[in-house]
Amino acid sequence: MSARAGIVVTGTEVLTGRVQDRNGPWLADRLLELGVELAHVTICGDRPGDIEAQLRFLAGEGVDLIVTSGGLGPTADDMTVATVAKFCGRDLVVDAALEATIADILKTMMSRSQSWAGADFEAVMAANRKQAMVPVGAEILPPVGTAPGVVVPGSDGQPTVVVLPGPPRELQPMWDKAIATAAVQEALAGRTEFTQATIRMFGLPESALAETLRDGEASIRDFERLEITTCLRRGELEIVTRYEPDAAPVYSDLVTLLSDRHGDQLFSVDGATVDDQVAALLAGRTIATAESCTAGMVAARLTDRAGSSSYVAGGVVSYSNQAKMDLLGVDADLLAAHGAVSEPVAEAMVAGALARFGADTAVAITGIAGPGGGSAEKPVGTVCFSVRLAEGPTVTRTLRLPGDRSDVRERSTTVAMHLLRSILLTAGDAA
Amino acid sequence: MSARAGIVVTGTEVLTGRVQDRNGPWLADRLLELGVELAHVTICGDRPGDIEAQLRFLAGEGVDLIVTSGGLGPTADDMTVATVAKFCGRDLVVDAALEATIADILKTMMSRSQSWAGADFEAVMAANRKQAMVPVGAEILPPVGTAPGVVVPGSDGQPTVVVLPGPPRELQPMWDKAIATAAVQEALAGRTEFTQATIRMFGLPESALAETLRDGEASIRDFERLEITTCLRRGELEIVTRYEPDAAPVYSDLVTLLSDRHGDQLFSVDGATVDDQVAALLAGRTIATAESCTAGMVAARLTDRAGSSSYVAGGVVSYSNQAKMDLLGVDADLLAAHGAVSEPVAEAMVAGALARFGADTAVAITGIAGPGGGSAEKPVGTVCFSVRLAEGPTVTRTLRLPGDRSDVRERSTTVAMHLLRSILLTAGDAA
């Protein structure tokens, strides 16, 4: 049996979708790494009654560990610690050492930042004093910002509760300390380790995969020992399988089946994303981008990772026709003859990017993201791509992508990454 | 009393954070527009037991309406309809008309798409047949993709359940039809309308706001009639207040208090984002970007909205020093003397962007996003910004931004938007 956990994300701004929750996914990853089975993530606003209801729900579902995020700030709507204390039947007491730590942090912050000019230390400290209140018997996780976390040990069959702050850059550094506490170690004792593996495909419909998986169920022995989840996202299919280590041969049979049936679409069996693969293939090379409808999204994605400056030269966002001519050297006659969204223009853009940046690899994208600008011949979603290597090959494609403006832009970015991957693989073959 | 609702998001890929949930936030917005109070969002994997536990939890919390998303696909891990039927005590039956509709959709899809080449219609239809199974007495929401939704009326004090598919572009078009059903209308009958208003600030610490709100509690009559939530995100503070319409004078007092205390930081009282404001201020103008560490993120953000092609000329992602020289005309001596991350280089970049794109407005960003590249003098997080209008003013700033690579890049993008807003406002004043 695997230890089970639940995550409670608090904050009206997260509940109402004004802020995207980054903690639930991050905590989910950490729990999976530990071999803990995540059963539920629940989100509620800054209301003690709703927070308490979620804690009761998770305890009732028999989880061994609850992790909460958010609600530790100085404002009156931050009430997670008090609510958890009540739920665990423990009183709240001021921790004098913690109060002194918070006072020191505030003094340093106020002395450094202009935006505090004129603020009264005592008034600010009054607002932050409640952050020094902790449940009796809880272990304190020292603050990264001004908010400390706490670990409240479970008792009488109740789960252990780890209370963490909302800002990811405060929450994340506290995690290792939280996990190291005796209370958490005890809650997770005796867990089964699981292996998790990811296969990625591009360009296969989900129903075709479903058919193959049904065949696998019939043909692969012990298939039911694999817990398979599939997810289609902007043309990419992700197949994540979780299994106990001794079911590795069953998983291996699944990989063989998928490779045999869908070898052309399968691009990763080791969890690597197309971004990882393109980054590796770009080692020793220099890339430049020329983007119209995606307007910098491919450049931003390529530079997302540390160290990308060793192979990214730069790019041009050529949103206007004038920019295509002035910055990339696209011929005015070509634009007039074929229109900005056309394969000849995409090829001229990619050639311009190669030349202007002195790069050996380039990608160009020009398309109609909508909602306006479409025509009968070139409807919204029409996007032309060209990828080119200095040593020769150019690949140019026109696709019609589904969805709204944001979908078309994001999906175009993903398609560009896959075209780059393909052309760079041919370079590898030739070398 | 407001009607209360809960949202159940299913899907192991969402639970484990591999896919960001876009439906919870979107549904939350729709419910708030209807004046429905959203109490809980719960996320679980594709396990019937966990889905059922969440439905029971929400029903136990007394919600009037439950909306589920996901788990309607053809694969075996999609089991939401069957689970909801069981929870509502209703049998599942095949709907013949719906089965015919799904068959038609599949035939069209298979005939149009290359990726289906060689697939057997009967096998695919077998996979999709379970999508035609609906709970007895449920209302069917016609499919947008291949998955229909259903509305299962509440009975005996149980909530009405709206079952929607996971892909946002299938879920969203079904919403209006779901809301129009008699079962949903009945569940939401007698709800109180609420007004919701948003104030935005930039550059104010959360504790300073907390202090002001405590003063408001003491000085503003009926302050408790305002339900205020605050959220700090990359330097922006968002203050959302929900109140019954007759408490409008109380809210007006709050706005006055915040304007008096924090007028310099307050940039929006009408819900408009800095993106909305910059877009409005750019009407009749032309903007170009020159980005180093943000590498296209500002250009991508400016072009996020439909119609931006009327004022965005384009931009240069000048990741390498060579690109700064070749594409933006930054002087090699300037780079050598001050380094790429310096105010003189930012000013040369902004001048280059103005000139090369023939624009009248430009923004340049050069900084150290990390994790490498920092020094004692210029640590990671050091970012230089320059904004300039063709008619004269240039504003240049150097900031030290907190957080990791991704934080620094995103926060730099937000700072750039605020600097653009400020300089464009001075242009408006001069005109």
From TrEMBL, chains A, B:
Domain of life: Bacteria
Domain (MoaB/Mog): residue spans on this chain: 6-186
UniProt feature coiled coil, ranges: none
Family to which the UniProt record says this protein belongs: Belongs to the CinA family.
HAMAP family with a match to the protein in the record: CinA_B (MF_00226_B)
Entries under NCBIfam families matching the protein: cinA_nterm (TIGR00200), PncC_domain (TIGR00199), PRK00549.1 (NF001813)
Organism (species): Mycobacterium yunnanensis
A Pfam family reported for this protein in Swiss-Prot or TrEMBL: MoCF_biosynth
Name of the molecule in the record: CinA-like protein
